[in-house]
């Protein structure tokens, strides 16, 4: 158990809908990362937050947004969902968001878009 | 462009035999290097990482990896595989934004 929690574990929804994925980092960690794992794209970095501020951005679609709250939990919002958004979404956390930090991954949320 | 290549999609190893999983990367500078393992239904667990210094890195569960700058490689090794090592292994490079390979699925035969 990495100490990173993600809810829900599974999510099934329809095209065009909007969902919110939630992540609680390890106790004391200030930085949160979101990754998408899909069959065709593999594991891709989406976005990083540090202490409530966006720090780094990857291949995140404009339909997706994220935020980190004062209690350090983070939410990834996915809107206007398409079939291709079906994937496993991982959250990771690290202590300070520095280059040398180890990222600890949560168990993921599996999103299925029908 | 930054990329990570894991040329073996699947590898089958007999229990007790040695293992080597290959990883090659393309990056602007020498990045930090990582190996993660993903068991079914689980998140990714860090096995080991290389930042600098000794190019042979020891990790958890008896794994080690060797960084070879001249070959842009970071291969993962284990001298004797256990059935519980069956999982998917990902090589990753980068700094804060990790770039992952496509993974190698390890099957362990009795």
What keywords describe this structure?
heterodimer; A: 114 residues; mainly beta; seven-stranded mixed β-sheet; four-stranded antiparallel β-sheet; 11 strands; globular; B: 110 residues; six-stranded mixed β-sheet; 0% helix
Task: Describe this entry's structure for a reader.
The complex is a heterodimer of chains A (114) and B (110). By secondary structure, chain A is mainly β. In chain A, 0% of the residues lie in helices and 53% in strands. In chain A, the strands form 2 sheets. In chain A, strands 2, 4, 5, 6, 9, 10 and 11 form a 7-stranded mixed beta sheet that branches. A 4-stranded antiparallel beta sheet of chain A has the order 1-3-8-7, with no helix packed on it. The termini of chain A are far apart. Chain B is mostly beta strands. Helix content of chain B is 0%, strand content 54%. In chain B, strands 2, 5, 6, 10, 11 and 12 form a 6-stranded mixed beta sheet that branches. The termini of chain B are far apart. Classes of the chains: A mainly beta (114), B mainly beta (110). The interface between A and B is medium-sized, with 25 and 22 residues.
Short summary:
Chain A has 114 residues and is mainly β. In chain A, 0% of the residues lie in helices and 53% in strands.
Order of helices and strands of chain B: EEEEEEEEEEEE
> Judging from the principal axes of the Cα atoms, what is the shape of chain B?
globular
Radius of gyration of chain A: 13 Å
Q: Report the biggest beta sheet of chain A as strand number plus sense, adding barrel if it closes.
A: 7 strands, mixed
- Net shape of chain A: globular
Mean pLDDT of chain B: 93
Given as residue ranges, the uncertain stretches of chain A (5+ residues, pLDDT < 50) are none
Radius of gyration of chain B: 13 Å
User: What fraction, in percent, of the residue positions of chain A are helical?
Assistant: under 10%
Distance between the termini of chain A: 31 Å
Number of DSSP helices of chain B? 0
Query: Structural class from helices and strands of chain B?
Result: mainly beta
Order of helices and strands of chain A: EEEEEEEEEEE
Strand content of chain A: over 45%
Given the structure, what is the number of helices of chain A? 0
Instruction: Name the helicity range of chain B.
Output: under 10%
Q: Which protein chains make the most extensive interface, counting residues with beta carbons within 8 Å of the other chain's beta carbons?
A: A-B, 25 and 22 residues
In the predicted model, the low-confidence regions of chain B spanning at least 5 consecutive residues are none
Range of strand content of chain B: over 45%
Classification by helices and strands of chain A: mainly beta
- The end-to-end span of chain B amounts to 41 Å
